[in-house]
Every structure is written in structure tokens, then in C-alpha cells.
Specification:
Chain lengths: 117, 110
């Protein structure tokens, strides 16, 4: 089955770090832009970051630029989001999506990040 | 304050046609394609429309998208109870240099 699976979420204290992973099954993630999107439970979607096929282009929403880093390992068919200096307002369900706005878009089911002392 | 504007709620009865608006400006909707997503309760979002008016395979033709100037619209015809969900628009913003979602419209099927 074609799918994306996120992992790495959890509870972390303010100022801490987490690394999220997005692994693809049954398709070559290397062929697609990959996007991270987050959603505070009960609230709307927020676009966070994306990366192109070879990792040479990366874009971030202002609120995470300088704290989050998106990267990819095409040999492992995966994309990561390194999150540093975490804040309470980063608490959300984090989704990854390949080809978010294209005909063959795929979304994962999300991984929950909670930032709290 | 979101860069893209959507009404917070909409409603309709089964069989009816409903439309959702997404209003932006020149750097986003005015210059870039718009996508629409459906999020059913407790589920991940799903792409409904891309490139303003294109449907991925598997999306019923009851769903249609359009764009004019700096506004985009999503229409659902033949409304069904299973269409009750949140609907979001998405577009790249050339000034911000990242993508933005609208705040979403919650659809209630009466």
C-alpha cells in the first residue's frame, strides 16, 4: 500500500528538541517535493516547511525559520524535520505530505508533538 | 490574521449545491495555483482540487474548483451527508516565500 508514516513525536520541555521522520512505503519519495503541515487539535492547518526532490531547495514558515530544519535521505526514502528551541506554540499534530498539491498527493496520519513543562 | 480568507462555516441540505470562497491577493492567489483539501473528522486532510480546477483521480466530479483574479471557489453539487467536513484552500505566496492555508470552512449537512 502506498503510504507515508510519520514518527518521532512526543512530549518535550520548552527549549528542547525533537526529530520527526516521514517514511514512504511502496513508492519512491525521492521523486517528490515533501511538505510538513501541522495542526493544533481543534484548529486549522498550518504549512510548516517543504523540500524539493534533491534537497537543494527548502522553504519555511516564518515562525519556525532558524529553529526547524527539513532534510531528506533519498537512500532511505525518508524526510526528516529537526525541531530545536521548541515552544509551547509548536504543540500540534504534524503531518507529512508528498506532492501536496499534485495529482498523486499522499498524506501520512500524523505524529503528535507536545511542548510542555 | 490569515493571508487567505475563508468563511468559518457553511451549511446545506442533501442534494443541494454549496460553494466555498477563498479570498487572497496578488502575491498568492493572484499569481499561483490554488488547491483545496477536505478534512473529515479525526482524519488527515485529503486533496480535492489542485491547479485551481483539477481533480485527482478518485475525487468525485461533484467537486469542482474555479478561480478569478485573487479569489478561488470550491463547489460541491449533490451534497451528501459524508461531505460534512472542514475545507481548506492553499496557495503559495510570492511575498512571504512560503505556502499558506486558509483558516478553513466547516461544512454542516443539515
Amino acid at each position: 500500500e502506498v503510504q507515508l508514516v510519520e514518527s518521532g513525536g512526543g512530549l518535550v520541555q520548552p527549549g528542547g528538541s525533537l526529530r520527526l521522520s516521514c517514511a514512504a512505503s511502496e513508492f519512491n519519495l525521492r521523486n517528490y517535493w515533501v511538505t510538513w503541515v501541522r495542526q493544533v487539535p481543534g484548529r486549522g492547518l498550518q504549512w510548516v516547511a517543504n523540500i524539493n526532490q534533491d534537497g537543494s531547495k527548502k522553504y519555511y514558515v516564518d515562525s519556525v525559520r532558524g529553529r526547524f530544519t527539513i532534510s531528506r535521505d533519498n537512500t532511505r526514502n525518508s524526510v526528516s524535520l529537526q525541531m530545536n528551541s521548541l515552544r509551547a506554540e509548536d504543540t500540534a499534530l504534524y503531518y507529512c505530505s508528498s506532492a501536496i498539491a499534485a495529482a498523486d498527493s499522499v498524506w501520512g496520519q500524523g505524529t503528535l508533538v507536545s511542548v510542555s513543562s | 490574521q490569515s493571508v487567505l480568507t475563508q468563511p468559518p462555516s457553511a451549511s446545506g441540505t442533501p442534494g443541494q449545491r454549496v460553494t466555498f470562497s477563498c479570498s487572497g491577493s496578488s502575491p498568492n492567489i493572484g499569481k499561483n495555483p490554488v488547491s483545496w483539501f477536505q478534512q473529515l473528522p479525526g482524519m488527515a486532510p485529503q486533496l480535492l482540487i489542485y491547479n485551481d480546477d483539477q481533480r485527482p483521480s478518485g475525487v468525485p466530479d461533484r467537486f469542482s474548483g474555479s478561480k478569478s483574479g485573487t479569489s478561488a471557489s470550491l463547489a460541491i453539487s449533490g451534497l451528501q451527508s459524508e461531505d460534512e467536513a472542514d475545507y481548506y484552500c492553499l496557495a503559495w505566496d510570492n511575498s512571504l516565500d512560503f505556502c499558506v492555508f486558509g483558516p478553513g470552512t466547516q461544512l454542516t449537512v443539515l
